[in-house]
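Ticket #4471: structure export looks truncated?
Reporter: QA, pipeline team
Priority: medium

Steps to reproduce: submit the single chain below to the structure queue and open the exported record.
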Amino acid sequence: MYPLQALCILVAIPSICKGQQENTCNVFPKDQYIETGSDTEIFCQTSCVHSKVFWTQNNRPMNESLSRTINSSHTLLTLRNLTLHSATLQCHSAETQHVLGGTTFRTYTKPSNISCILDYKNQAGPGGAPQLLICTWKHEIRSSFEQNNVNYSVIWLCPSYSTSCGPQREIICNSSVTTCTLEKADLSDKIHLWKNFTIIVRAKTAAWETYSKSIELNPYHILKLIRPWHVEVTSTPSDKPLVKWNRSLVSKKCHCQIKYSKATNEGTLEWVKNKTLNSKKKGEETITDAESCSYYTFAVRCALEKAPWSDWSLEKTFVTKLHKGDVRLRLWRKVTEPDKNGARKVHVMWTEIPSTCQDKFTYTIKRTPYQEHVSGVNLTYTLCGSSTCDVDVNEDAHRLYLTVLQNEVLLVEDSVYVPAMGESLQVTDIQTSTHEGDILVKWKGPVQPVNGYMIDYTHNGNQYHWKESKYTNAKLFALQDMKPYNITVTPLFGEKTGRGTQALQICSRVGDPGNVNITSVLAYDKSASISWTVKSQETCTGVVVNYTIFYGTQKGPQLNVTVNSTKQELKDLNPDTQYSVYVQATSLTGTTKSSERFFMTKRFDPKLVTSLSVCGSITIVLVLCLGLCCAIQWKKYKEKPVPNPGLSSVAWWPWTSPQKGMCSFQPISNPSESLYDRVYTEETQRTSTTSLAAGGNGNQASEQTERYPDPGVAPVPDIQNEKPPEPANDQQPSSPGESTVLLSSENGLFSPYRSQSSLETPPTGTSKQCKRLLVKQQEKTTPATVYVTLDMFKQGHSW
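Actual output as written to the record:
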């Protein structure tokens, strides 16, 4: 908003001033560039106003003490030691607050921190006059426009002592960056007689120009020597590396550095040695701390007093030889417990001679009883490997001698003592602890005075480490991470050793708990049962203190429960919902969690579904059993015998309208022609036949009828009689229409079924109570045929 307001004010000022006798107001100088740290003055013309004025810088009021009134029409603003990158200054009327005029300024800096070196373009030669002058400096650029539009020049100032110098100033190098290289053949003419010379740096743009402070340079202080071009490494008589090199032709005292490095499993180790050479002296240095049979890389550089270092020479690789004084066998032994015969196995170990040594080495162990003056003792020699050897001894004390031959020549020899079984000098009360991967060992020494203690330790029983201590404690470091260590402490006294005491196995570091694996998740409608296991391939894993189960839905909060077992039931879950769960095992050293697992709760309780399934199954079985029983009973019922219709006969059953004192019978429909059929059983026929044979009359028939008042109920005929007897002629006259004829089968045999036909006029009979009436057969009435089952009349049943 400020530029627009300023524009409006500046447009309005001429109108205001025109009304005031054509007087104008303004600020000058305009848009100036000022060097950082310098002073400047800004004028404000106040002809258009009659009041005081005040100044603002970037819209902030400035201290009134910085401005003063020169006359009635001008006010002066003085700025000292400017440090701002840029600023906008405005002059305001104190009465109307109007802006009378404004200006901006920007600051720029001088080039600083100038440094130059004299260098050689060709590093392969012996040196001579330098060929390059390389100067660098620093310059603060305060705008992107200036950054791409600044030009630099290195200006040579003719020294006052020179009488042949041409112009007082000469541009020797131009650049658009903050470094410049002068590469001229006559550079040595500028550095006449190797005396001091002076240069300055100019920075120039279209808007401003500035110069750095002049700097006087001593050629010998800025000369970068040529790198040593010839370096060789040989061996001294003591088998130590000797480094030699050639120095520059500049005949002045110089300092040199010899850098040598060695590659190891842990990385590259590097050392630097300093060497000062007097005038014209060649370089030579012996590396006394180089290890035997090791690969080393050597390089050399040199520099004059107060001058920059030269480049490193080309590297030289050298393999050091084995120096006898470097061989430290550190011979030690590990004695096992005796077997049933008293024999013991001694594991002898020593520091291995580096495998990089080119010579041939032979290792021999000589075993001898401790008292060597005993005559008749057989010495036993064992040829061993390069760092370990196993020797068998009995329960007596022995001394073992290790002999090392280099190219069949004795190199070094050492011995170690093996105590007898009866010796009891040993340490007690060993205590171990761990701290940041190191093992701290403490023990209680014996009462007898000792020279020190030997601590041997191993994590696999094959590779041993050992160290000596003069105190009753030791710190074991550089151990394998998370490995169990067996530690043994043995006292040393004179040329003998006591018996070793082994501490309890301890881990170098106890890690996190083992891997947690969820084995099963049994989900129900509102609960779930979680089971898990903890397995680890490492021995040194933390003991689990507790387990925490984290579970929850995707959108819901995460819940947790802490337990001490490897199984837990989660309750109060939502039915038919997906849950995620993982288990975290916690020990004193850390935590381990399982992978996340998802499960879905049931919609209904599985126990209820199971109960309903069991009940349904039982119900189905019962229904099937009941149906089977019913089927069996129905089958039995269907298989009951049906009476032979051929053994029965039919007769008319009289039907009359109901009359007083008479029995009425309902008509029975029958498909036969007769309306009424009379059924005769075999027993009835037998009785009738007997009665007729005896000369019976109608009264007997009446009695017979009285005995069986219901003609529909009759005794079962005797199924033993194949042929029912024919009724007698005197029993009842037969009508011409009534006939009893046996039906013939297709094969001509008699059929058990009779041909039953009805007569129009039934036989009359007498009865004591009822009188049969002849009823005219109705039209369209179908008489019924009656069948009687056999079980209706069981033998012995009394009617």
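Status: closed, not a bug. The export was complete when the record was re-opened. Leaving a note from the reviewer for reference: The helical segments are 2-19, 144-147, 187-190, 219-222, 606-638, 682-693, 698-707.
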